[in-house]
Write a structure and sequence with these properties.
It contains 14 helices and 13 strands. Helices cover 33% and strands 14% of the residues. Strand 1 (40-42) and strand 2 form a beta hairpin. By secondary structure, it is α/β, with parallel strands linked by helices. Helix 7 runs parallel beside helix 10.
Length: 362
């Protein structure tokens, strides 16, 4: 089955993409120099190289999912030592780096100088810089394509024509760095963004799904694609409703021969909203967290305060649930929401609460 999928993907891409998945195409230092960290799953916890429990507390470094597609760069928030210093001053120990599928794969629709090996090398260098500084990094599949056009937004599900190839390449690049976690898909929302059996089956198994106009790649085949490279890295698996529900996550958990799966969930307060804004539903998170690690990959207040996230981080801290706030980018706190006013790390009204909480946990 996997060979057939790979052949179909290559056939679909051959006229459009310049793709090389060999590790030699990405300029990485030796594996032992990349990171002092190891992050792995042990029971329902993330643990480090000593076996000690790990709670990821950090931010999303937004920009690499859209800058290349829009044709003006690779990053928005600077990917520099100064940025790392500012993040560390906040108490950040983990950074999520959203990526663009077509920029990584090298679509000719992306501007020359921003695609393929140039994009991959820039991302790899930034990831290495972060992990060498002692931070765990989560890389994801954020903006994706469903046809021959470039990725200009997040889609309802990953495409079977492209996503397995993308994850084979990403996993092959970072498999030597055990401080890198793979977040298989940003925010699935099949079956018209409902929490239905059809939506859960679509997320796990892919194929032809209700409310989706293309053949999708399920999380099971993406796990298989990652593991086919020999990568043993931790993998984050979302549920439906924009990664907002864990209600049936254990029932629809993919099979992982490495037993290194964690659950991904995104939680926002009003006015953006998400299922777990309702605190009465937080026991659903507890049920999953009793079996596997849970990572809140995105969270935020979209009213420019930190009233909701103060409650959420307190809840997560008492359960060793990991969380990463959106986002380390200068933007509108209500639209993004943005954590910072400038790239020196001056917090926004929302960011002030996140910074205080992170520093308290150091």
């Amino acid at each position: 089955m996997r060979k057939a999928l790979a052949a179909a993907a290559v056939a679909a891409l051959i006229a459009l993409l310049t793709v090389t998945t060999r590790p030699s195409t990405v300029s990485l230092p030796p594996a032992e120099a990349q990171s002092p960290l190891t992050v792995r799953v042990s029971g329902n916890q993330l643990v480090d190289q000593t076996g000690a429990k790990v709670q990821l507390r950090g931010v999303n470094h937004s920009g690499a999912q859209y800058a290349c597609s829009e044709g003006w760069g690779i990053f928005d928030a600077p990917a520099t030592d100064a940025t790392i210093a500012a993040m560390k001053a906040w108490g950040v120990n983990a950074v999520r780096v959203p990526l663009n599928e077509t920029c990584w794969l090298g679509s000719t629709q992306i501007r020359a100088g921003l695609r393929g090996s140039t994009y991959r090398n820039a991302i790899a260098a930034w990831v290495t810089k972060l992990t060498t500084a002692g931070m765990t990094v989560i890389v994801d599949e954020h903006w994706t394509q469903t046809d021959a056009k470039k990725a200009t937004d997040q889609r309802v599900m990953p495409s079977r024509a492209y996503a397995p190839l993308y994850w084979h390449s990403v996993a092959d690049t970072f498999k030597g760095n055990p401080a890198v976690i793979f977040d298989l898909f940003n925010e699935p929302y099949p079956d018209r963004n409902r929490d239905t059996t059809a939506a859960w089956k679509c997320v796990r198994d892919g194929g032809t799904c209700p409310g989706v106009g293309f053949v999708t790649a399920g999380m099971q085949e993406l796990v298989t694609s990652v593991r086919s490279t020999g990568a043993k890295n931790v993998i984050l698996v979302p549920g439906p409703e924009y990664a907002g529900s864990l209600r049936r996550w254990l029932e629809f958990k993919p099979v992982d021969p490495a037993n290194q799966l964690a659950a991904s969930v995104h939680i926002y307060g009003l006015p953006l909203d998400s299922p777990y804004r309702d605190q009465a539903r937080w026991p659903e998170i507890d049920t999953v967290a009793a079996k596997v690690p849970v990572v809140i990959g995105e969270m935020g207040d979209t009213d420019c305060t930190h009233r909701f996230t103060d409650k959420l981080t307190k809840y997560a801290d008492t359960r060793n649930i990991s969380y990463l706030a959106w986002g380390w980018v200068v933007s509108d706190c209500a639209d993004e929401p943005s954590l910072i006013k400038d790239y020196k790390g001056t917090p926004s009204g929302f960011g002030a609460g996140i910074k205080a909480g992170l520093q308290k946990q150091r």
